[in-house]
Every structure is written in structure tokens, then in C-alpha cells.
Amino acid sequence: MVRSSTTTTKRKWIKMMLYIITPLLIFSTLVAVNHLKNNSEIVSKSQNEAIWFVLQLTKEYSEFVYQLQNYQFENSSHDEMMIQYEILWSRFNTIVNNSQIMHFDQFKGAVDEINSHFERVKMLEYRLLSLSSPQETQPVLQLFRQDYENLMVFLNYKFRLSSGDLGDRITAISEVETVIRYLLITTLLMGALMAYLLLRESHSHHALAMKDSLTGINNRLWLNQKLRELELNNTSFYFYLIDLDEFKEINDTMGHHAGDELLIEVARRLSNLSCKDYCAARMGGDEFAIIELCQPTGDVNSCISDQLTGVFNRPAMFAGSFHPISASIGVSQFPKAAKSVSEVLKQADFAMYEVKQQGKDGLLHYRSLSSLAENQRVIS
């Protein structure tokens, strides 16, 4: 008993810990997911928007170098080349003067470096304007090309390879992802364990609800459910309603404890019959019931009828000594005699009452009421 109590206490403690830890894990996971989402949004927004402007800048710079080269080979005019320069100038100016809006402030040193290239481009503007012929273009082209290549090296390093704060954020996100992965696995395991415990507890409660607390056999709730199931499936069965004789007198003269001992002993005997396809239940008080599925032949002389003789012809131990016992038993058959569960119960009760009227200690099939003397059999 002490061991059982300790086990029950341990299970309650484990369940309580699960109820506390699982919500905390779920909350922690949600917080981590939200943190990851915020970091991802920041990185994604800053990276995507900044990189878009960087790509536009490199594209316009490449176009300008190309136009300047075309001018050198007289494939484009000076005006066309200057138009491309103006586009490049405006792209630089947009990035430098709107760096916070474009999230360039997320990349340390990027704006300063781009601004230095912008200043260099502006310093070379007068040389573009002073070009009098394509033959003078080579030195200027070389300066712009060198500046373009240096800018590309920096941008590739800053936005694609190292990326400063972006790298730190990506590392942080990776760490958060790892934590979330473990949190999710742990939460799933804890949730599965909790679901298992709740399911097992539910099954246990359901099983207890179907058992008689005193005798441990099936109770009236289980019996009614079983009868409805058999009726729904139109399964043929015998129903035995058993009422212990003189049970009230035993309770009154020997005490309720003696009556409980008798009920437990009768339940034990009914549960240990050697017949197949039967089940026993306590309906309440001193009444028991047995359901026996009919054989294909529908033989009335069923296994249970013969076995019940041995159940009540032996004395039972209660109140410290052996005492003779007997019972009045009414039998009904579905669907041969009764067409519904209510008829089964009424017919068995009627047959059992007839046994009581005839002196108790006997068994009677409802279908044989027309010849009571012939069919009644004393169990002694």
C-alpha cells in the first residue's frame, strides 16, 4: 500500500512538472521564434534594400565606363557619355544623402567608402567636361576604371563576403535557429509525453468508471453499454439476472462488512467460470448479471446454466466462517424471446421474481413460464 501511494505521488509530481514545464517551453519557443523573425526581417529588409541600391550603383558605374570607352572609340558622342555620368552622379548622391532610409547604416563603413568614391568621381568631372577629342580619353578612362574596380572590390567584400554587422546578425540568427530547433524538439517530446500520460489517464478513468468499486468486476454502466452494443449489432445472447437470497438478513445480523465479503466472493466466482464468450457484472446491491453469447445452435442448455450450479452450491466464507448461500436467477434470450434491451431486463426480472415466489434458490428461463414446475431447477 505504501509503495502504491509512493508511485501515485510520483506520478502526480511528474504530471505537475509537465504541466509547468511544457507551457514554459512553448512560451520560450514563441519568444525565440519572434526574436528570429524580427532579426530575419531586419536583415532581410536592410540587406535586400541596400543591395538593390548597390547593384544599381555598380550597374550605372559599369554603364558609364562603357560609354566612356565608346566615346574613346568614337562610338558615342560626348553628350551621351555625359548623360550616363549624370545618372551615375545621381545614384551616388541618392545613396550618400539617404543612407538611413536605405538601411546603409546597418553596414559599418559602407556609406563613408561610397562617399569617398563619389568625391573622387566629382573631382574627375572637370576632366570629362574638358575633353576636346576622343583621343584624350584614355587617361581619364583609366582613372574611372581603376576607381570602379576598387569600388567593386569593396562592395563585394562588404555586402557579399564579410558584411560586418550583417555577418554578426547572420551568426546570431544561426544561433537562435539552433536554440529554437532544440526547443521545438524538447517541446514536442514533452508534449508527446504529456499527451501519452493524459491519454493513459483518460483510459484509466474510463476503465474505473466501468468497474464496480467493491468487487472489481464490471458495473451497471458497463452492462448497459454492452447490452446496447449487442442490441445494435443484433447479436444473440442469454441474459442472467442473479439476486442473492437472504442478503438483507446477512447485512442486518452480521453487519455490512460480512455482506461486502459475500459480494466480493460471489463476484470472484462469477468471474472464474470456465465458459467462453461470457462476462459478469454487478448491477448494484445484491444483484449480479451475466451475458453469455449464444452458440450457433442456439442451445438453451448453455454452459453458464450448468456452471451457476457450482457457484451457489458451495458455502462461502464471510464473517469469519463458511455459510451456505443461494440465489434466484432469471434468464432471458435476445432476440429469440426479447426484441429489445428493455424487454430483456423485464423478462429476466420477471423470471427471477417467479423463482422467488416458488421458494427461491433456483433458475428459470422466461420462455418456459408456461411450465414452471418442469423448467425450474433448484441450485443446491
TrEMBL record:
<dbReference type="InterPro" id="IPR043128">
    <property type="entry name" value="Rev_trsase/Diguanyl_cyclase"/>
</dbReference>
<dbReference type="InterPro" id="IPR029787">
    <property type="entry name" value="Nucleotide_cyclase"/>
</dbReference>
<dbReference type="Pfam" id="PF00990">
    <property type="entry name" value="GGDEF"/>
</dbReference>
<feature type="domain" description="GGDEF">
    <location>
        <begin position="235"/>
        <end position="368"/>
    </location>
</feature>
<dbReference type="InterPro" id="IPR000160">
    <property type="entry name" value="GGDEF_dom"/>
</dbReference>
<protein>
    <submittedName>
        <fullName>GGDEF domain-containing protein</fullName>
    </submittedName>
</protein>
<dbReference type="InterPro" id="IPR052163">
    <property type="entry name" value="DGC-Regulatory_Protein"/>
</dbReference>
